[in-house]
Amino acid sequence: MSETMFALLVEDSPTQALLTLAELEKVPNVKVDHAASLAAALEFIQRKRYHVVFLDLTLPDSVGDETVRRFCGAAPELAVVVLTNHDDDQQALMALEQGAQDYLLKAKLDAASLSRSFRYAIHRKRAEILVREARDAALEANRQLERRMRQIDCMYGVSRILESPELPLQVALEQVVAKAPSAWLKPDTIGVRLSCMTGLLPSGIVETPGFVETACRLEAQVFAGSRPAGRIEICWTETPPAEGDEAFSTSERELVRELARRVGLALERACVQKELVQLATTDFLTEACNRRHFMQSTAAEIQRAGRYGRPLSLLMIDLDHFKRINDQRGHAAGDEALKSFVVMARDLLRDQDIIGRMGGEEFAIALPETALNPALVVAERLRIRLAGLQVPVSGGEPITLSASFGVAECKVGAGEGLEACLGRADAALYRAKATGRNRVEPAE
Ligand SMILES: [Mg+2]
């Protein structure tokens, strides 16, 4: 020991103190202070850093194992050598259990034993601290690992939910939000909220029950492709962390970003799916149903009408002299005319009515819950509205249009199918054409 070391002797007996101090002063490079009570000793260690404390157990203000416990509790990093009057193994063991590093019998004190004990206590204390730190580190690593395992488990579950193709997106997102907080977040985390901006979700927002917006929150943007598609927020109830403190760990931040990424992919997939359905069912020019989709939807409506004994009518419509518009004004003008017809018809029809482009300038309309006479009224309104329409065309006069209509009520009670009913409506349309166009003809 070349550097100066500091020892504190805690001893209430003046005679014993003199004897012990005399021996301690013989130990090279050690400087000693003396306290005569536990209270005085605790004050000494507040003011100065000691390497070892020699501690008498019987003091005016504390006796026996209480003395060791109180002292070691107040100075957990300090090496302690207990001084005992009797050769008492029990008491020595007790002292070591309470946190002392060594013990010495007062009757056998000399410079050599004090020097040995001094060094031994320091080494032992260092070893104890190293062991404690290693144990704490292992426990913390374990906790981190367990948390990470829960996070991985949760992310796996979230992936399973988002990747299951049969699950509607809204339901999938609700499940994701419900799964997230208990599985990966701190116990005091109280809510996850997912807001979507794609218009794919009826509500636009799903959140865990009890979601409360607080100062403590973690956010991540959801992107579907390159478009911002929503946001994930995680909130919890504790008071905000002190400045500079990280409220969430790096791995939690990454996890939430990863979740946002996966939700974005699910939204992207749902968008593509929606577009595919749109493409498969819609006439690209007019956005009316295509022929196939019209036939499917209307056949289903006719079945339903037959089941419940409800009326249903069909209109077949052909724009008059349409070839003349294409020839005289060009195909772009013809396209505008077709689009205008659908926009006008949609405006006049109900939501449940189905309009389909059957080909060229020919359209069909299905009117559920509608018998022949009201269907004729609808056709007449469409005819009049169309006749009054002025379709603007760039670089020329607006186009005027008219159409011929054949109207048939489906004989659902007699088991008439879609093809047969359309055939009757088509025959009526042919008569309307043959008898001068721009008119409505009921089927026979
Ligand atoms: Mg004493």
Automatic annotation (TrEMBL):
CDD domains the record matches: GGDEF, REC
Enzyme class, spelled out: transferase
Domain Response regulatory positions: 6-121
GO molecular function: diguanylate cyclase activity
Superkingdom, natural source: Bacteria
Coiled coil residues, start to end: 124-151
Entry's EC annotation: 2.7.7.65
Residues annotated as domain GGDEF: 310-444
Keyword set, alphabetical order: Coiled coil, Phosphoprotein
4-aspartylphosphate PTM positions: 56
Catalysed reactions, semicolon-separated: 2 GTP = 3',3'-c-di-GMP + 2 diphosphate
Signal peptide residues on this chain, from the entry's feature table: none
GO cellular component: plasma membrane
GO biological process terms on file: cell adhesion involved in single-species biofilm formation; negative regulation of bacterial-type flagellum-dependent cell motility; phosphorelay signal transduction system
Identification of the protein by name: diguanylate cyclase
